[in-house]
């Protein structure tokens, strides 16, 4: 049965625990279409656990997550095709080239990253000369830029991004902020974590996670 008919991601009565410690308890969350939400808090407060739970990668102790009115597990939700989750650990295959990595993830979604599109995106991130190199050969900043390429090579309606601004230079941070705002303006949903303030990024909602208590700021 569908939730209230509205576009976006919703959590109802979410409880998440880790190693017998309750991180979130009976929390309701609402991430509307066309918005950017910033999750923040000290290490260990459950930011990454919450993002993984919203993405369906971590089981909830209780509660449900809905996408566009349907539970995310419901076929009509089309959740896995609409979601793009970028984890802090990048999840790239070190033995593959940059091109092979990006084409692999695109193919997993039933899509095809053309060489021309791949080159265009890589050029915007100043990594076009690295496409034939193995992922393991790159610096941390270069590796992170490769991961960001996925945002523009794979069609999605929901971006869940764990520390997307880490290891980026000022120019690339500004570029990413602009892309996030454009994505939200087109009706997308962005949820991200960051330990640093991002100048120029229009944030519609902030959610603060704290040890043993949870505070939601609208």
Account of the 3D structure:
It is a single chain. The protein has 218 residues and is an alpha/beta fold. Helices cover 29% and strands 28% of the residues. The protein contains six helices and ten strands, in the order βββαββαβαααβαβββ. Helix 4 (115-124) packs across helix 5 (140-153).
Set out the fold topology.
Elements: E1 8-18, E2 21-32, E3 35-40, H1 47-54, E4 62-67, E5 70-71, H2 79-82, E6 83-86, H3 98-108, H4 115-124, H5 140-153, E7 158-161, H6 170-185, E8 189-193, E9 205-210, E10 213-217
Parallel strand pairs: 3-8, 3-9, 6-7, 7-8
Antiparallel strand pairs: 1-2, 1-4, 4-5, 9-10
Helix pairs in contact: 3-5, 4-5
Task: Record keyword descriptors for this entry.
single chain, 218 residues, alpha/beta, six-stranded mixed beta sheet, four-stranded antiparallel beta sheet, 28% strand, disordered C terminus
Q: Classify the secondary structure makeup into a structural class.
A: alpha/beta
Discrete helix count: 6
How many strands appear in the DSSP assignment? Answer: 10
Q: Give the N-terminus to C-terminus distance in angstroms.
A: 28 Å
Give the helix level as a range of percent. Answer: 25-40%
Which ranges are low-confidence, i.e. pLDDT below 50, for 5 or more consecutive residues?
1-5, 212-218
Assembly type: single chain
Largest sheet: 6 strands, mixed
Task: Note the run of SSEs as H and E.
Answer: EEEHEEHEHHHEHEEE
Shape designation = globular
- What is the residue-averaged pLDDT? 88
Strand order of the largest sheet: 6-7-8-3-9-10
Instruction: Report the portion of residues in β strands.
Output: 25-35%
The radius of gyration computed from the alpha-carbon positions, rounded to a whole number of angstroms, is 17 Å
């Amino acid at each position: 049965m569908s939730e209230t008919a509205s576009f976006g991601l919703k959590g109802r009565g979410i409880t998440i625990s880790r190693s017998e410690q309750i991180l979130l308890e009976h929390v309701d969350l609402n991430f509307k279409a066309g918005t950017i939400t910033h999750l923040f808090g000290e290490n260990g407060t459950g930011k990454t656990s919450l993002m993984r739970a919203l993405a369906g990668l971590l089981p909830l102790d209780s509660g449900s997550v809905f996408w566009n009115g349907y539970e995310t597990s419901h076929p009509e939700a089309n959740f896995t095709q609409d979601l793009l989750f970028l984890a802090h650990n990048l999840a790239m295959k070190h033995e593959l080239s940059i091109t092979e990595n990006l084409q692999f993830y695109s193919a997993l979604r039933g899509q095809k990253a053309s060489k021309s599109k791949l080159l265009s995106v890589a050029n915007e991130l100043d990594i076009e000369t690295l496409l034939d190199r193995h992922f393991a050969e790159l610096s941390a900043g270069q590796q992170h830029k490769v991961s960001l390429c996925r945002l523009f090579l794979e069609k999605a309606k929901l971006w869940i991004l764990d520390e997307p601004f880490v290891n980026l230079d000022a120019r690339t941070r500004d570029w990413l902020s602009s892309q996030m705002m454009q994505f939200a303006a087109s009706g997308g949903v962005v949820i991200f974590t960051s330990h640093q303030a991002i100048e120029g990024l229009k944030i519609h909602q902030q959610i603060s996670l704290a040890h043993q208590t949870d505070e939601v700021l609208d």
